[in-house]
Amino acid sequence: MAKTLPTIPYAHPFPCDDAERLERARQFREQLDGRRTVRDYAARPVDTDVLLECVRAAGTAPSGAHRQPWHFVIVQDPEVKRQIREAAEEEERAFYGGRAPDDWLEALAPLGTDDQKPFLEVAPALIVVFAERYGETESGERIKNYYVTESVGIATGMLISALHLAGLSTLTHTPSPMNFLRDILGRPKREQAFLILVTGHASENARVPAISRNPVTDIATVR
Ligand code: IYR
Fold first, then answer.
1. Rounded to the nearest whole angstrom, what is the distance from the C-alpha of residue 173 to the centroid of ligand 1?
2. Which residue's CA lies nearest to atom 9 of ligand 1?
3. What does the DSSP 8-state code read for residue 140?
4. Looking at domain 38-202, does it have CATH number 3.10.20.70?
5. For labelling alongside 143, which of 1, 69, 118, 196 has CA 20 to 30 A away?
6. Is the distance from CB of 171 to CB of 181 less than 8 angstroms?
């Protein structure tokens, strides 16, 4: 049996009283409520340091057995973005051209998406999130990871929130299948592409579908 880790004292880093707590919670909710998935990007570049700070934020996510089973590839090179677009559009042509079941295409129709993915080249950054299906020790032995999908999903949510609060827009893009990302980006076999987070500044004329969010009385039960 491995030994337990040493422990350190913990106190919440920014405590507050109950009245302030509600105000902070409200403010955070309001900030996140202003996030929208954006499909039209300006070409304006983003500072890599900002992206790295946001990835650091994502890396604070809790994970199964603290395995931190994620890897983020920040792609800004136009040629690599072009390759990703080409490969993604090939998959999407098959998806929209018959691979997707009718009910799925019907669910997507209101969003007006199709097999054209110009944002993969126009947006200044693609953050490709990989899930580490298993880990590797220094001597190259496989070690099991736990709750990989949950862990990477939580980290990705934190990444989306961090980018939004840093004034950037994102689009969660999931070409299916997306194994081509591992090959284009030269990642090891133990990593599986999880999604592409298209990142940048919304174009001046960007528009988003008029949608609303389910009220808390629908999404929460208090008992
Ligand atoms: N991957 C496709 C299809 C797609 C699927 C869902 I679920 C969406 O919410 C949006 C799109 C595409 O990117 O077009």
1. 7
2. 108
3. S
4. no
5. 196
6. no
